[in-house]
Specification:
The protein is about 20% helix and about 25% strand. The chain has about 475 residues and is an alpha+beta fold.
Length: about 475
């Protein structure tokens, strides 16, 4: 009997040791596109920023690295009698590389106090688009306010107090309360520059984040070039205005041959109504987004000069009136005030939530802050001040409900109002974001490791006791 127990304990010990050896270093951090999981190779990047103002206009200049510019976005390719869509948002990088570079900036004037402490984290709610377990388009469409009234197709960025329960995306507070919040300034101003959908017309999309992310009042710099009923584009290139071109060539796009000086977009003033009787051939391609100058509040932000990529860096300058006179859409800038801003960058054909974001930064207009907007006179800024460098990081699947839950060890610090930048660096936040994407797998692996450790100890202890007992006899 004793020999049987000894052999069993040795076998148990060796089995646990073998399992530990087999699974050691195997890891759980693995891309899983079905669960909307893709971890970028680079977790942090630098963004350089400058700001200047003259009392009437305010300028922001952004500079960030990327190996190559991504200028194309969302194309319609003619193939065997049908128009096929290429370049839609994907989990991780767009497989064909057809996704534009972007830079965005959120602005607050103090009316959203949590933004100064926690930045864009407060905008990430329950079951966001491209999160694991995201709300389905059908669920969003059925929502009486977001879907049926506001025509939202997904759960996007929103402010916490627009929900009765921050852990429930559908718990939108009553509409009169939303209106009162907006009038009180409870929204974030969003500057949104896109390499394809805005840059060729010298514009940045002007948006706002409140109970959802919306465009400001008016017309934006692009619209959908698609007739859903007829399953064909609305517009085509006008050969009389484009040197004989009715469409782009797919091979040119797939090979990245079209650059800044080439026609790689469909601008409204260079287009005409789509002609289905044209002699379309396989590979003819039309952008699914048609560009225009825009109108009203949504067209307030313009590109100053030329936004271009050169020697491994994008250099983009945006300009807007300091006070647009639109208090429900825009945050007005005033001399000697301090504002909170947050930045993000999309690059390498990543879209949706696969961006790099900053912690909140304080901008002073002739006031102290993390960086200052320099006052100038004349036609344009001289940009003589030093760059302010911000570290952007990959945020992973970290939501505001998660950060305020028992799963987050720092939830008590949030309840106390302690700002995130006092406790964490950007690289720490990037690693935490990845950990949260694999929370269940890490916890399961930890339990396996614990079990293997217990078996090792039990097997070793039992074998040792049995051996000692035999020697005593």
């Amino acid at each position: 009997m004793a020999r049987t127990l000894l052999n069993a304990s040795i076998a148990l010990f060796l089995l646990a040791l073998l399992l530990s050896w087999v699974f050691h270093g195997s890891g759980v951090v693995k891309n899983d596109l079905k669960r909307n999981i893709y971890i970028p190779e680079t977790l942090t990047i630098p963004l350089q920023v400058k700001a200047a103002y003259d009392g009437e206009r305010i300028f922001f200049r952004y500079r960030w690295p990327t190996k190559q510019p991504r200028l194309y976005h969302d194309m319609l390719k003619f193939q065997d009698g049908k128009w096929e869509r290429h370049g839609r948002s994907a989990a991780g990088p767009q497989p064909q590389g057809i996704y534009e570079d972007r830079v965005t900036m959120l602005v607050d004037d103090g009316a959203v106090p949590d933004f100064e402490k926690y930045g864009g984290y407060i905008l990430v709610g329950d079951r966001m688009r491209f999160f694991t377990g995201e709300a389905t388009p059908k669920e969003v469409a059925a929502h009486p306010y977001l879907g049926q009234k506001k025509k939202q197709a997904e759960v996007g960025k929103h402010l916490p107090e627009t929900r009765a329960d921050v852990a429930d995306w559908a718990s939108v507070v009553p509409e009169p309360q939303l209106q009162a919040q907006r009038k009180a300034g409870y929204f974030l101003d969003l500057w949104h520059w896109r390499a394809h959908r805005s840059n060729p017309v010298g514009k940045s999309d002007d948006q706002v984040v409140a109970e959802a992310r919306y465009g400001d009042e008016g017309k934006g710099p692009f619209f959908n070039n698609w007739d859903g009923d007829k399953k064909q584009p609305l517009l085509m290139l006008d050969p009389e205005k484009t040197g004989g071109k009715a469409a782009l060539g797919w091979d040119d796009l797939a090979g990245g041959k079209l650059g800044f000086d080439d026609l790689y977009y469909l601008r409204e003033d260079q287009a005409k109504p789509f002609d289905p009787k044209h002699a379309w051939k396989n590979g003819d391609t039309l952008p699914r987004r048609a560009l225009r100058a825009g109108e009203g509040s949504r067209a307030d932000i313009s590109v100053h000069g030329l936004a271009r990529w050169k020697d491994g860096y994008w250099d983009v300058t945006l300009v807007r009136r300091m006070d647009t006179g639109r208090p429900l859409d825009d945050k007005a800038f005033a001399d000697s005030r301090v504002y909170t801003v947050g930045f993000s960058v999309h690059r390498d054909a990543f879209g949706s939530r696969w961006h790099y974001v900053s912690l909140p930064q304080r901008l002073g207009l002739s006031r102290r802050g993390d960086f200052r907007a320099a006052r100038f006179s004349g036609a344009e800024p001289k940009w003589e001040q030093d760059w302010f460098t911000v570290t952007l990081f990959y945020p992973g699947q970290v939501s505001w409900p998660l950060l305020n839950s028992s799963r987050h060890a720092g939830a008590e610090n949030i309840r106390k109002g302690i700002p995130v930048r006092l406790r964490h660096s950007e690289i720490q936040l990037a690693h935490y974001g990845i950990e949260m994407e694999f929370y269940d797998a890490i916890r399961r692996q930890w339990l396996y490791t614990l079990l293997a450790g217990v078996l090792l100890i039990a097997g070793f202890g039992l074998a040792l006791n049995l051996l000692l007992a035999r020697k005593e006899r």
